[in-house]
Amino acid sequence: MRLGASSPPQGARHPRPSQSQNRSLYSLKLRFSEGQVTNYRIDIVYSLRRAGKAQPLYTLRETLMERVQVQKVRPDGSAELSFVVTSGAGLFNGKAFEVNASEAPMYCVVAPNGAVVSSPPSKGKVVSPQMPDFLQRATNLYGLLFPSYPLALGQHWSYHEAEGNTTACLAEMRQVGPYQTLLLKSLSVISIHTFVHTSDSPSAEGDPNSVSGMILRGKLRLRSSTDFAPQLGLCVRIVKHGWADLQVRTVVNKPSKQNQNTPATLVLPPPVHMLATFEISAGIVG
């Protein structure tokens, strides 16, 4: 999965339940067993458009099948996980593409409270090149940080990380397929500063200039619903809706007209106000 290491929460506020609530307290803690394999289907819908315009510049619809395996459980309860995309397909601006199976797994270490404590570089290509970095990170199965003590239904908690703030709530208990789950609702506000590589896209018809990428800066608001099965210690379903308000600068690779051996000049036009929206759903299959 698209995973980035999570910094320990700072300035976390966890209002503790009163004694009158102690009859209905629920612990949020991931549990891992060595060799455990879980398969997920991930559906993604994404669009990017200019502010004030209805027609999107980029659209993406993608479905991925991913296998998550517990490689090792550490004494503190954290686990070394491997992630492999087994298949995938989608449409980018209406054009169909296939996502090949991962050449090699991606590995990370996840703590019982959901924090991604380490995520070494992957040798395998596990994501489609059309997907911006902030969208890849938004598809994480892990990353919502659980408090260290039990919660009552309706209770909120919040925490701060280097890139933003999250407020979450234990909303209700419900049935999702064969699983009895606790529904966790959260809202995160995250800073974006990333580069999207688009070197194969011409800047205009017949124009020799090549668009080599886009610099994106702005804020992402991410509203999530996570179904956590406490008996299994596992997230069985996650739905995320995101809105990003962005300043986008296109990086143009302008070749030299006098000498083809001269390195191209990078040109940065003024930033453009863009709006990105996406919906991501992930659920256990099989």
Task: Report what the structure shows.
The protein is mostly beta strands. Helices cover 2% and strands 58% of the residues. The chain has one helix spanning 133-138; strands at residues 10-13, 25-26, 37-50, 58-73, 79-92, 95-99, 106-110, 116-118, 151-152, 156-161, 164-176, 179-202, 210-229, 234-254, 265-267, 272-285. Strands 1, 3, 4, 5, 6, 7, 8, 10, 11, 12, 13, 14, 15 and 16 form a 14-stranded antiparallel β-sheet that branches. 30% of the residues are buried.
Question: What's a quick, concise take on this entry?
Answer:
The chain is mainly β. The protein has one helix spanning 133-138, and strands spanning 10-13, 25-26, 37-50, 58-73, 79-92, 95-99, 106-110, 116-118, 151-152, 156-161, 164-176, 179-202, 210-229, 234-254, 265-267, 272-285.
List keywords for this structure.
286 residues; mainly beta; 14-stranded antiparallel sheet; disordered N terminus; two-stranded antiparallel ribbon; 58% strand; 1 helix
Our count of helices gives: 1
Number of strands: 16
Average pLDDT across residues?
80
Shape: globular
Q: List unreliable stretches of 5+ residues.
A: 1-12, 17-22, 121-130, 200-208
Structural class: mainly beta
Biggest sheet features: 14 strands, antiparallel
- Compressed to H and E, one letter per element, the order equals EEEEEEEEHEEEEEEEE
Radius of gyration: 21 Å
Strand content: over 45%
Termini gap: 18 Å
Helix amount? under 10%
